[in-house]
Q: What sequence folds into this?
């Protein structure tokens, strides 16, 4: 079977043009971020976390999901996914780098990021998160290294040794990935000031969301970019499709709990805030982007669709629209004044933004930096895909 | 008969006294025959005297309280604030005084005055609620900081170390009172001052913006740039003007309050004005149910 690592064709050329446009536009945004700080970001003193924080939890979720998928192979020996284990690991590294870049740009003092290592406060969920990421990053690098070693193993004894190391690393990685992504959920959930966030379901919801979005990302990558389109590929994609379907269903179940419980009797602190999410000015973010294109259409494609193309499209939809879910987790928790009437108090709009306002719509600049990070991520992924033995002949066959 | 006559006469007397009483209200009515000169001599009341303590401005009393508190070791002081919402006229002098004192840039505010219009015409009113930092006994903003850049001092003031803050804004989300805001590095002169006098206005404005502020008793010169100079890029909040207090001056918002609606002092001192005020039954705190134990009380 011929390896098609860089298929030439109109689609590929178009892909390059789109990437270049993203890179230039997004790169310009990143440059502006480095030169002018948060000047052009629309978040405010009253809505202190916005698009970039949502983007960060989106990327970090992709990473945790992709990693947990690889652990199914190295720890639990799920054979159907063996072919994509290394690719999953590498995707986890790339999306982790994207997440860290994104949150780094979000800091007011990005030159002080290392303070989290020098003077951590372990009461803070955020300090835990950063330390766990660091451990996770090192683990990913080691695990990928041994995965390559395993491929190059010459005798069965050596192979068994590497397999064992990988099982151990993957085994450590599972609680680590659960802890850090559950921790991201807990970072929000532990905040008593924000009743929308302050719910024990958040860590679990974040984990499920990570598995779903990360799993869908891998499915999409395998369905569209896998070099060899044989029976093995078809089998893997079909299996992944089932995983994604199950995760969409489970995530929806948790989401039902998240919304229905605080809203059921139509009264209470969270009721009007969730009504805002569902029927406020950004209702379409929930109903059209998330519910229609992130749940209904993918489920229809996965249940009734035929072949890897349908699975790939369903997964692509899930991955892209999941960003809407992340936005809906971060922003509605912040846009309601904590004290009634604060929105009518002292304000000092200096163009182009009013920093003492509860009206938040991400600015073009915030999207620009987001796409810049995506462009860098795509470049890293492409380089790894091209030059690292992520997809070997043995696994393609 | 004689008996009957005298009985009638008696009843007439009584009845006339009763009716006269009804008509004349509170005036003393005497039954016929018992009228005589009043034996009580009315004297004018003593002249209305106001004690010198009651006459003095509350600022003087608070100044005395402050000086007394400063003589104690820091761990025995507990700074607190009381705001009388019935006296507040919503002039925002406190907000503006605070902006001047701390050289606050756009987007940063330590003490906004919440302005609510209540009621329906013709019964309409406005309610004002100045909102400084609550300097909570259990501050939710402190444990969330990943680098320990904010803490509660011995005297109860929640401090931020601008040199350590990485600008993640977790504390801003964690404050239930929205008391923390973020310094975006913006300036009042950005996009301002154009036309003929633009250059001069810009120069004057710049001069103001380059003035240092003295929060927490240090000299802070903020400056924007690729690597911003703190407090640009940091979370910021009301400090109860602790830099002034420790030099024996009342917080700026207390001194600029035209209605004398804001009181400041040592809550550990049972003799202080603030201790006296919070013992009243109309003293409340915001969001008591969260258990944050604010040290700002409102009289309602």
A:
């Amino acid at each position: 079977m011929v390896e098609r690592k860089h298929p030439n064709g109109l689609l590929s050329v178009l892909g390059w043009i789109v990437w270049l446009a993203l890179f230039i536009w997004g790169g310009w945004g990143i440059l502006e971020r480095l030169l002018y700080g948060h000047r052009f970001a629309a978040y405010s003193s009253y809505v202190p976390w916005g698009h970039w924080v949502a983007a960060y939890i989106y990327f970090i979720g992709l990473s945790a999901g992709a990693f947990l998928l690889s652990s199914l192979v190295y720890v639990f020996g799920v054979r159907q996914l063996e072919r994509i284990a290394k690719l999953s690991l590498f995707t986890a590294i790339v999306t982790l780098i994207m997440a860290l870049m994104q949150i780094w740009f979000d800091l007011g003092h990005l030159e002080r990021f290392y303070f989290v290592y020098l003077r951590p406060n372990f009461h803070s969920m955020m300090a835990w998160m950063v330390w766990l990421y660091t451990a996770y990053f090192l683990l990913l690098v080691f695990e990928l290294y041994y995965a390559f070693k395993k491929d190059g193993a010459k005798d069965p004894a050596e192979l068994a040794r590497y397999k064992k190391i990988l099982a151990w690393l993957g085994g450590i990685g599972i609680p680590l990935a659960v802890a850090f992504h559950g921790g991201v959920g807990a970072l929000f959930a532990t905040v008593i000031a924000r009743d929308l966030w302050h719910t024990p379901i958040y860590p679990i919801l974040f984990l499920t969301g990570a598995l779903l979005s990360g799993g869908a990302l891998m499915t999409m990558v395998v369905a569209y970019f896998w070099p060899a389109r044989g029976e093995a590929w078809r089998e893997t994609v079909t299996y992944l499709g089932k995983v994604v379907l199950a995760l969409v269903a489970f995530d929806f179940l948790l989401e039902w709990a998240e919304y229905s419980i605080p809203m059921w009797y139509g009264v209470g602190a969270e009721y009007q805030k969730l009504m805002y999410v569902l029927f406020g000015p950004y209702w379409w973010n929930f109903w059209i982007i998330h519910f229609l294109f992130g749940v209904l259409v993918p489920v229809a494609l996965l249940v009734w669709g035929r072949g890897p193309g349908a699975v790939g499209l369903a997964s692509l939809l899930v991955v892209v629209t999941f960003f809407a879910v992340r936005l809906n987790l971060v922003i509605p928790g912040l846009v309601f004044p904590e004290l009634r009437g604060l929105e009518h108090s002292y304000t000092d709009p200096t163009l182009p933004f009013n920093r003492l306002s509860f009206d938040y719509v991400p600015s073009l600049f915030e999207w620009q930096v987001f796409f810049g990070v995506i462009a860098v991520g795509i470049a890293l992924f492409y380089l790894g895909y091209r030059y690292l033995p992520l997809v070997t002949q043995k696994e393609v066959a | 008969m004689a008996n009957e006559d005298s009985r009638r006469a008696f009843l007439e007397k009584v009845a006339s006294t009763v009716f006269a009483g009804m008509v004349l209200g509170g005036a003393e009515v005497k039954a016929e025959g018992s009228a005589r000169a009043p034996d009580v001599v009315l004297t004018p009341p003593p002249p209305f005297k106001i004690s010198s303590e009651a006459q003095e401005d509350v600022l003087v009393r608070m100044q005395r309280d402050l000086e007394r508190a400063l003589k104690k070791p820091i761990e025995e002081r507990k700074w607190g604030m009381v705001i009388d919402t019935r006296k507040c006229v919503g002039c925002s002098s406190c907000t503006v005084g605070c902006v001047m004192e701390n050289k606050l840039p756009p987007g940063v505010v330590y003490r906004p005055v919440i302005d609510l219009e209540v009621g329906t015409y013709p019964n309409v009113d406005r309610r004002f609620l100045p909102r400084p930092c609550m300097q909570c006994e259990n501050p939710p903003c402190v444990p969330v900081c990943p680098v320990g850049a904010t803490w509660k001092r011995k005297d109860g003031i929640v401090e931020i170390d601008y040199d350590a803050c990485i600008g993640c804004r977790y504390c801003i989300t964690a404050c239930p009172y929205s008391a923390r805001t973020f310094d975006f590095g913006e300036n009042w002169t950005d996009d301002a001052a154009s036309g003929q006098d633009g250059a001069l206005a810009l120069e004057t404005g710049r001069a103001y913006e380059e003035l240092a502020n003295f929060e927490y008793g240090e000299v802070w010169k903020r400056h924007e740039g690729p690597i911003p100079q703190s407090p640009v890029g940091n979370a910021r909040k009301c400090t109860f003007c602790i830099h002034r207090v420790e030099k024996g001056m009342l917080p700026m918002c207390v001194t600029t309050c035209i209605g004398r609606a804001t009181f400041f002092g040592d809550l550990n001192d049972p003799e202080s004005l603030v201790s006296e005020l919070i013992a009243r039954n109309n003293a409340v705190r915001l969001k008591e149910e969260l258990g944050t134990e604010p040290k700002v009380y409102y009289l309602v």
User: Anything to note?
Assistant: Strands of chain B lie at 79-84, 113-120, 123-130, 150-152, 158-160, 181-182, 235-236, 262-266, 283-284, 296-299. The CA atoms of residues 27 and 219 of chain B lie 74 Å apart. The longest strand of chain B covers residues 113-120.
